[in-house]
Structures are given as C-alpha cells and as structure tokens.
Design a protein that fits this description.
The structure is a homotetramer of 151-residue chains.
Chain A: H1 11-21, H2 23-28, E1 31-36, E2 39-45, H3 59-75, E3 82-93, E4 101-110, E5 115-126, E6 129-144, H4 146-150
Antiparallel strand pairs in A: 1-2, 2-4, 3-6, 4-5, 5-6
Amino acid sequence: MPEFEPRDPDFDARVRASFERQAAMTTLGITIVRLDAGMIELAMPYNEAFTQQHGFIHAGIMATALDSACGYAGFSLMPADAAVLTIEFKTNLLAPAKGELFTFQGRVIKPGRTVTVCEAQAFAHDRGAAKLVASMTATLMAVTGREGIQQ
Amino acid sequence: MPEFEPRDPDFDARVRASFERQAAMTTLGITIVRLDAGMIELAMPYNEAFTQQHGFIHAGIMATALDSACGYAGFSLMPADAAVLTIEFKTNLLAPAKGELFTFQGRVIKPGRTVTVCEAQAFAHDRGAAKLVASMTATLMAVTGREGIQQ
Amino acid sequence: MPEFEPRDPDFDARVRASFERQAAMTTLGITIVRLDAGMIELAMPYNEAFTQQHGFIHAGIMATALDSACGYAGFSLMPADAAVLTIEFKTNLLAPAKGELFTFQGRVIKPGRTVTVCEAQAFAHDRGAAKLVASMTATLMAVTGREGIQQ
Amino acid sequence: MPEFEPRDPDFDARVRASFERQAAMTTLGITIVRLDAGMIELAMPYNEAFTQQHGFIHAGIMATALDSACGYAGFSLMPADAAVLTIEFKTNLLAPAKGELFTFQGRVIKPGRTVTVCEAQAFAHDRGAAKLVASMTATLMAVTGREGIQQ
C-alpha cells in the first residue's frame, strides 16, 4: 500500500476539527479510532434507531460512515485551506450489517490536486469475530474558499 | 415511463408495513408521500442532527432515503412472500443538500424475478424552489424464506 | 428535461471533430445520429468481433459507447478550450445486448464548471423492436491546456 | 486476502474455454496471464485502433478488460453448470491509459450462491514502470440452464 506525504503537517488536528463539526457523526455515535495521512478508521456501535426492517443497520447508515471514512482519508492529504466534497460514491452490500460494533477503514487510492479517489470497507463485529459487510469507492473534490461552501 | 403490473395486489399495505419496521425511517422523520406499483415518493425534513461539516444534510443520510426509495419501489413489484435486499447502490451528489425539506422519488427501471434495478432522485426544497441534489441507481435482490433474513 | 445553453456556439463542430479523433469509435463502427447542446445519440451495428461468450455484445463494448455518449453530451456544454476526462462511470446491464443495431442516448444531468454528471441509456434494436439493455451514470471533468493531456 | 475453495475442480479448463469463446478478447488481443480459484490476471497490448481522442486507450476498452477480469475471477468459483452474467460494474479512471501494455488483476471479494462481488485493477506498463490507472467493482450473477442464455 502506498504511503502518502501530507501537504498539511497539521492534518490530524484539521481532520478531527472537521469531523467534530459533522453533527451526523455525533448523532450516530461514530468516532475516530485511528488516523494517519491518507487513511482513517472509524467505529460505530449498533443502535436500533438506525435499523432497517430486519433489525440490521440500514445500508444508508453504513454508507454514511463509509462516506465519512472516504472523505476524511482524502481530506487528510489536502492543503490546509481546502474543503472536501463528495462527488459520488458506490457501495456494495456484501452481508447484513449485523453486529454489536462496526468499523470502517478508509484510504486514499489516488490523491489529486482536484480529484481524489478513496476506498473504504465496513466490518461487523459480532461476538469477537469481524466480518466484511460492505465496501465503498468514492470520488472527492477539493475546493477552496467560498466555492467549497456553495457547491 | 413504463407502468408495471404488481404481482401482489396488496402491495400498498405490504410496502407500508415493511417501511414502518424500518426504525431508521422513523428516526430520520422520513414518510411516504406517494406510492404506486413500481414507484414511491418519500419526504424528509431538515434536521441539524444529521448534517455534515457545512450544515447540509450528510450525503450518507441522503443515500439512506434514496436507498429506501429504490428499495420500496422495487419491493412493490415483488411477490407477497419475498424480502428485498439491496445488493449495491451508487449515488451522485449534484449539489449540497441545503433546504427545509427533501423529497425522494424512486422508480423501477427493470423489474426481474431475482434482480431488480431502480433509480431515485433527491430534491431539496428551499423557499418554494425544488432543486435536484442527488441521484441513485440501485440493484435489489428478491429473496424468499430464511434466506432473506440471513443474507 | 432541462435545456442547456452552450458556452461554445460552435459546439457541434467541436464535438464532431473530437469524436472523429476517437479511433475506438471508427473501429467499433459507432456514429453520431443526433447531437444537441447537452445531449447526443450514437449508433453501433452488431459485430461478432466484439461479443462475449454467448454471442451478445460484450458489456465493456456497450460501456465504451455509453461512455462516449456521456462524454460528448458533457463536452458539448464545455468552453471551447476545455478537454473532457471521464472520472468514473457506473453501468447497469439490464438485459443481454442482443440485436442488429444498438443506440445510445447520452444527456447532461448536472453541468458544472469543473465537474459534469451525465446519464446514458443503451437500446438494442431487434426485428423492429427497441429494448432498454443498459444504463450508465458518468462523472466528467473539464480540464484546460496541458493538464487535459496529462491527467 | 482470502483463499477460496473452488466448487468445480476443473475450473481452470472451464474458465479458459469460456474466455476463448469471448470474441472480444481475441479482437482486443487480451490473454490470460495467470488464473487461480477466485483470481485472474489478464494482459492487453496497446492498440491505436482502440484509443480515445488523446491517443490513450478508451476508458470503455479498459472497462472491457476489467469486466472480463471480474467475470472470470467470479466464474472460477461457480459450479460447473453455471453461467455468469455481469449485473453492474463501476469504474474509476485514475490516470490516462498510457503505455505499451496493460494488465488487469481481478479477484473475488465476496462469493455467493447467486450473487458474487469482484474487484479488479488495471495497470499501465510504460518503459518498465507499472502504474495503477483504473479500478472496477462488479456484481455478477450465477445462472443455470436456459436462464443463463436469455437474461
């Protein structure tokens, strides 16, 4: 796996500050487990309030955590003055999101000045066993200044 | 647009019963606005608890509503004993999810015995104007009996 | 469907000139049937040389025509000095690509200064009947100058 | 990476026989470099006949090879009497397909009785250096008997 050189030496503080401003993360109980240049790991507890009709976590909620994992992996490599926007993401649901805890590993596949491509995987943890339950590929765009808030 | 013949004449009650079992819909305040064979429209109010770092609705939350719109459009055409699973979905984020209310229109593009393909669009309603802010293509699988609960 | 105002009044000649430089289009026998600002229709005859194991056109060849349909729909709205790059595309194969002739309708869903999102649909024509066999969503990037050739 | 147990001990001969029936592979000069249960590597030489407007291999042609890489990785794990169909694929174009030779590594991420999910990566080889230029995620369906030919 490639190792990346961050353009912003303070990427750790910048990523954590932005993550804290995502109210959705707080509401879903999602936290940063690990953070490095170009990669991040998030964790989310099971919460019945976010389930689908069979009692498993809703695919869209899994996508919410996967999207943040992709977004912050990419954001960690961006310059200090850039905002990050998700252009698109694609998720494969490989197995039901059934477990007590879920972890999400995001990493940059291809960094770029404007466009960055990331991947993330979701694991369900159930009685000590971890199982791959979903994957995502996401395309991010770095924007600066007012453009980042409008787009 | 093609019109579909539902295999289950009671599809309306079946879709609404399953939708009510999705705790995530209740938590997010998502409701069914319109339902027909092969199509559904959902609505969701703005809720600061589900925002990203710029105060707009998180892309994954938009995907949650879009996924349910696709899933229930497809589910409406399935036989009475089938369960529906999302295999994959892909979302393009076209503009920030900025507005007071969001609506989601899902429809079946290609029904099938095993695999059904659906599309959905998300609109942001802001001071009377509606704007297309996201689109989704989703692939669903119809499963029966225990398989539907396990997979 | 939205109608678009082209930024380049000579978009028709510019699109056709770029299309002619795509050797892959000539090799596959793909031609422009219709072209307007933000939309294009292409046609491709059946050719056994590009089939998969069941004698139908290979999904990737269908994607080649769909990608060009998306790309040139988007390119028609770009400024005169821009080059177009596909960032990503997603295709759903709805039915086998079985027929004598295939047509591909591409159109812009969301134009943008940097990023443009397009959709395209593929139809198989067999003994007078047209059938939807594949769909694509594609994200394009407009680049200028040397960047367009390098990226 | 997980290792898979093939259900068909003769998967190698079965995959190669099907691959040879894909006329598109012969036309594009694509060959099997390596084959194992759940994984395959393909190679394709540069061919000006399949380029886009900048002289690089057309994204759809890259997708053709990536789709076959995903399809045959998945097909290798299917039972002897199954046919494989691609339901959908998504490709990220990470860099221009510029090089003398291209290789494509496909592998199964999640095998299943009906649905199998695969990933593939494309590398461009240019003056001794290999560069990741595209990635794909694909969903396959195993079908048996007449259904496999019709769908």
